[in-house]
Amino acid sequence: DAGVTQSPTHLIKTRGQQVTLRCSPKSGHDTVSWYQQALGQGPQFIFQYYEEEERQRGNFPDRFSGHQFPNYSSELNVNALLLGDSALYLCASRDGPSGTGELFFGEGSRLTVL
Amino acid sequence: AQSVTQLDSQVPVFEEAPVELRCNYSSSVSVYLFWYVQYPNQGLQLLLKYLSGSTLVKGINGFEAEFNKSQTSFHLRKPSVHISDTAEYFCAVCGTSYGKLTFGQGTILTVHP
């Protein structure tokens, strides 16, 4: 049983560019969340998708957007990249949107913005 | 809104010694509490969680945590650590009606031989 898979694992972009990160949830999971983990910090919640809709959003600008597909996979898009967007982006999935279900994390996509 | 404070950024300890990683939280609503572990260049793995019931929660790899509502704390303990426990540990909370996790800054546990 594959867990949460993310792609790409590493990528380098320059300021002003746009990036798309992809996530496939663990089998049987229908809810996907994205977190940003800056170096030396704890993960910060970006948003959560359930039934193809954004259900909750953290304190991130509109440059951060996402999508969930009918097969429950998800994309995170970041426009107009800033140096401060350099971080590990973690995707997590669970069965249902409430906090009782265990959240499974992928190994992340490390984004470097030059 | 919730917040989490992990009181120690780094904890060095010798192998087979006991360890406690401290976590305090703040919330205006009821919360669920979690501890996650992150090994280098990996994602996060759930160690244990408190949803309700007994305040002493046992998790994987011999870890346990105690929920103290009056002190708003959820400290993680292990009676005897191994070299393989070297990692970064994160305390997290979420409201009972939704699934957003709020994490602490992390505690780096280093186990020395």
3D architecture notes:
The complex is a heterodimer of chains A (114) and B (113). In chain A, strands 2, 4, 5, 6, 9, 10 and 11 form a 7-stranded mixed sheet that branches. In chain A, strands 1-3-8-7 form a 4-stranded antiparallel sheet, with no helix packed on it. Chain A has 114 residues and is mainly beta. Chain A has no helices and 11 strands. Chain B has 113 residues and is mostly beta strands. Chain B contains no helices and 12 strands. In chain B, the strands form 3 sheets. In chain B, strands 2, 5, 6, 10, 11 and 12 form a 6-stranded mixed sheet that branches. In chain B, 38% of the residues are buried. The mean pLDDT of chain B is 93. The A-B interface holds A 4, 31, 33, 35, 40-45, 48, 55-56, 58, 90, 92, 94, 97-108 and B 4, 32, 36, 41-46, 49, 51, 90, 92, 94-106.
Basic shape of chain B:
globular
Strand count of chain A: 11
Q: Name the helicity range of chain B.
A: under 10%
Question: Rough shape of chain A?
Answer: globular
**What's the mean pLDDT score of chain A?**
94
Q: Percentage of helical residues of chain A?
A: under 10%
The averaged pLDDT of chain B comes out at 93
- Kindly state the number of beta strands of chain B: 12
Roughly how many Å apart are the termini of chain B?
A: 41 Å
Kindly estimate the percentage of residues of chain A that lie in beta strands according to DSSP. Answer: over 45%
- How does the major sheet of chain A shape up? 7 strands, mixed
* Radius of gyration of chain B (Å): 13 Å
